[in-house]
Specification:
The structure is a homodimer of 338-residue chains. By secondary structure, chain A is of the alpha/beta class. The first copy, chain A, has 13 helices and 12 strands. Chain A binds a DNA duplex (16 and 16 nucleotides) through helix 2 and helix 4.
Chain lengths: 338, 338
DNA sequence: CTGTTAGCGCATTCAG
DNA sequence: CTGAATGCGCTAACAG
């Protein structure tokens, strides 16, 4: 680890003031091309590398944006991250990623370290455990702009990029009804979480619009755990004449399907299923499963672009830039009970 | 974004010199407990938060370690990352993650930005595309220590944490032989990559040791792509009397399995398969599949601990701390053709 | 277009 | 145990 060359070394070697060197290296228009060339050449010659730490301290910016997701191992999130990274890198930003693991405590810690590290902005899909947003409003006042994605939160001057849960649910349920299902179970998450509530509302609306009565015992709540999935699967088997399942809860749905499979209950020949899911696992278990495709990479690109504009203050009215992205129903053969 | 309180604010308020404040806040033993308490109290009162940027500049350290993996969406890597994060956070280090996407160019860029951002050390699983290690030796001389994981590289004074590919392959193949397989196909990756070569050697050795002839046409090379997997599946179907498959290539193997499934070729009733894989997808496709379990979280913990020791210079002989972790054969029922 | 001056906030000498 | 002084490397005012 030899001593690094600084702008002062270049300055001395060339007998040009260090501020001019700094300007030249930052390609300021206020330096003549001639001296720029001179300086650039010398910089390369001496193996100069800007000390970003010093630069950051001076400008109080880091050119870094923070990302917080529940877990990077979920396909949906790693895809979103890919979209974010691509956009950020192209705009000259670095990216740091943290996982909250659905824990509120952990999320608070992450936000706090990102704040300490002076990231210029934050992209976050809040954890399920998050009960208030003080840490986030604190980030906003002391740090920089925030853009929510995937799990929208209502917060002053803070945009959300998400999908239309209601519509997606409605369409999925309608799809099952069209294919002859009349006794459709709904796998859902906790209703106190807005996202799952809206999905349930979409399901209910689709049934109502098609004159199918709502039976509360057909709406199965659960957490996002595998054990819950097995519980749900068992409940389904006890319900009379179930002929369709609409799941808005990936994790539990997958484990439910595995449970069915182990017990030789064929899906979707016996039961038509629509899953809310981009996960390759469900596709692997049941290649013919119809799924709702969420825009993942695209969501990352949009959220990231928006955040960068907010950082650069190209935009003045953040909340007006919230966006609802469309979903797509990927219809595969055997969920059509024809 | 109001102005932040600095140690000078505390210094003034208490009429104590700022260096003492700095020392107290860093819990230096050279400050009396009494003044420490005083300062700490005031710091909280004023809502003081250390400016890490300034601290970093001064100390020329960032308390951050860089991670580079081919892609975070691979279950194996996201698990390793979990292990790394846990260990790093407990030791007071932050973590930044980059994906090379198996591209050499991208890997070089990432290493370069991590270097510019003065991460204290680097954990890397090199991309498939990487053809030389200049960027890494540059990081070592100008940045800090490196620890390789998963894909071991031979480099001066640089430890690797990886598994014993040869042994794992040998055991997997032996397992198939024990269960009566005699015509075992090997799904592999490019042989010019050391890792795949060693895996193939393990396969060959197991056959040889059991007096089964090696047939080159039973060793199928491929890249890590899905299309390749389908190609391999087709080739298998053309080979005479295949009764076992040992795969050391996750991605291709999964798509091969899906191809089998689509064509109603039952696995593993017709063909016994052993896969090299922690991926939940293959488990989902075929719950009874026997797999080689790689230590993932554990690998992260070990690599991360080692790197931190190297950063702190608690260790003087890095290369002697390379470690080969054991694998475990998870034997599930129906791959035993009994 | 270039030079001068100053300071971002902290940690580390060196004194005492 | 505490204070005074210095500078990490860069950039931003302000001159000229």
């Amino acid at each position: 680890m030899k001593k690094k060359t600084t702008i002062h070394d270049i300055s001395k070697a060339l007998k040009i003031n260090s501020s001019t060197v700094s300007r030249a290296l930052n390609n300021s228009p206020r330096v003549s091309q001639k001296t720029k060339d001179l300086i650039q050449k010398k910089a390369i010659e001496l193996g100069y590398q800007k000390n970003i730490l010093a630069s950051n301290l001076r400008t109080n910016k880091t050119n870094t944006i923070g990302i917080i997701v529940p877990r990077i191992s979920r396909t949906f999130f790693s895809s979103v991250i890919s979209g974010i990274e691509e956009t950020a890198y192209n705009a000259g930003y670095n990216v740091v990623i943290g996982q909250s693991l659905e824990s509120f405590e952990r999320e608070k810690e992450l936000v706090s370290t990102l704040l300490s590290n002076r990231v210029d902005g934050l992209l976050i899909s809040v954890s399920m455990g998050t009960t208030n947003y003080d840490h986030l409003s604190n980030f906003k006042t002391n740090g920089g702009p925030i853009v929510f994605f995937d799990r929208p939160i209502t917060m002053l001057d803070t945009p959300s990029i998400s999908i239309d849960d209601y519509e997606a649910s409605y369409n999925a349920t309608k799809h099952l009804i069209k294919n002859g299902c009349k006794n459709i179970v709904h796998f859902s998450g906790f209703q106190k979480i807005a996202l799952y509530k809206r999905r349930t509302e979409g399901y209910v609306a689709a049934l109502t619009d098609n004159d199918i009565p709502i039976r509360p015992e057909y709406i199965l709540e659960s957490q996002l755990s595998e054990a819950d999935g097995i519980e749900m699967a068992k409940k389904v088997l006890k319900l009379p004449k179930v002929d369709g399942i609409y799941s808005s809860n990936d994790t539990a749905a997958i484990s439910a399907m595995q449970h069915f499979k182990k017990n030789n209950i064929k899906i979707p020949d016996d039961i038509a299923i629509v899953g809310f899911n981009n996960d390759p696992i469900s596709a692997a278990i049941e290649p013919n499963l119809t799924t709702i495709n969420q825009p993942d990479v695209e969501m990352g690109i949009i959220a990231s672009s928006l955040l960068i504009e907010l950082i650069k203050k190209t935009i003045k009215t953040p909340s007006e830039h919230s966006k609802t992205l469309g979903t797509e129903l990927i219809i595969r053969q055997s969920s059509q009970k024809l």
